[in-house]
Amino acid sequence: MAGLANIAKIPELKKRIIFTLLMLAVYRLGCHIPTPGIDPDALMAFFARQRGTIFGLFDMFSGGALERLSVFALGIMPYISAAIIIELLKVVIPALERLYKEGEAGTKKIKQYTRYGTVVIAAIQGLGISIGLEGMTGGGGSMPVVLHPGWAFRLMTVLTLTSGTAFIMWLGEMITERGIGNGISLIIFAGIVARLPSAIIQTFELMKTGEIMPILMLIIVVAMVAVVGFIVFVERGQRRIQVQYAKRLVGRRMYGGQSTHLPLKVNTSGVIPPIFASSLLMFPATVASFVQNEWVKWGAESLSPGNLLHDFVYVALIIFFCYFYTAVTFNPVDVADNLKKWGGFIPGLRPGKPTADYIDRILTRITLGGAIYVSAVCVLPSIMIQKFNVPFYFGGTALLIVVGVAMDTMSQIESHMLTRHYDGFMKKRMGRVRR
């Protein structure tokens, strides 16, 4: 409570939080504005059969906007896809890698390329959705989703959905610049949390009917709190490698000589591995909804959530993408070269290749632990639904995103409060000196 009271005492932080909440409210309002030319009842009936497909995954990240086919139906996923593609292209295109090393000017250029990529991906996805909608029906095949099919509907849908994604991207950047926290992450956070009230209401209804016993519900709540605490503990986990800086004589002054550490996160790849793994696993189910083939249907059923094969492949894909994405985003050779450039070294190791090999060996070991942790959290929903008949989806990518974004936002709020405190302290000291 004291922390909340302190927030109200800092005008700048208070304005940032209010601005963030208003922007998120605008986003949630846009999720309920429908795209023209759609029969909402037929669309809801169609999506009722798509819970285990890639549409269900995109709908989760869009906060239900795809299910309603609102102007924000594509959500922020095109931006995330563009950012990931740019990140991966950095490995094969030296010019992009040089931009990353140019500081603020290079970062602005990368952001500009990401925006262009977002618009292109959103336009392609919008065209694919508009064409796919024309063949969709709800209510047993008697209700067409599109009222007036044709190129007029397709162009209108592409323009609407692309503009919606561009507007969400702008909202995210405004939150990052003028609000508090990472805007893109907070938009995903808001979309996921928006479904929490309906899950709570559904749970209480099942408790009233006797389908869930109060004792079981108490055990589930305790388990949920323990899982969230475990996620917070692991997300903060680091392997710190000691780094010593050699003393250097610059003019008449001696610099360096201090000891610090190189922090390596246990979960370096974040939530990217489960997102990639979920997309690949849901692809067969998505194809099966359009293609009438026995082999495709068998593959979709075998890889549907709840089956042992699904969980096995899911865990294997998560572990693979954890190593893959960590290798793409963290280069031990560059870290070793930077340490050598600034006179840093790891005690007992020579600068250069021995240092890079040591960092790579440590990173490989902790990435395995991080991959197992992410896999356990992502497999948790299917275990809770099958074994305990939990009526809502708890765990997985959504939980990792919610907890991670909440931790990041709270740390930024705390940083603002500490900065304000230190400014006041310094001003007070300066006043005393003047007197």
Give Rg in angstroms.
25 Å
Spans of 5+ residues with little confidence (pLDDT < 50)?
Answer: 422-435
Most strands sheet: 3 strands, antiparallel
Number of strands: 7
How would you characterize the overall build of this protein?
With 435 residues, the chain is mostly helical. It has 2 domains: 18-194, Preprotein translocase SecY subunit (Orthogonal Bundle); 207-435, Preprotein translocase SecY subunit. Helix content is 71%, strand content 6%. The chain has 18 helices and 7 strands. It has helices at residues 2-8, 11-30, 40-47, 54-61, 65-68, 77-92, 94-100, 104-134, 151-178, 183-193, 196-209, 214-235, 272-288, 294-302, 308-329, 332-341, 353-388, 396-434; strands at 137-138, 143-144, 238-245, 248-250, 253-255, 259-265, 344-345. Helix 2 packs across helix 10 (183-193), helix 10 (183-193) packs across helix 18 and helix 16 (332-341) packs across helix 17 (353-388). The longest helix is centred in the C-terminal third of the chain and has 39 residues, at 396-434.
Q: What's the short story on this structure?
A:
The protein has about 425 residues and is mostly helical. It has 18 helices and seven strands. It folds into two domains: about 20-195, SecY subunit domain (Preprotein translocase SecY subunit); about 205-435, Preprotein translocase SecY subunit (Orthogonal Bundle).
Defining key terms:
single chain; 435 residues; mainly alpha; Preprotein translocase SecY subunit; 3-stranded antiparallel beta sheet; two-stranded antiparallel sheet; globular; disordered C terminus
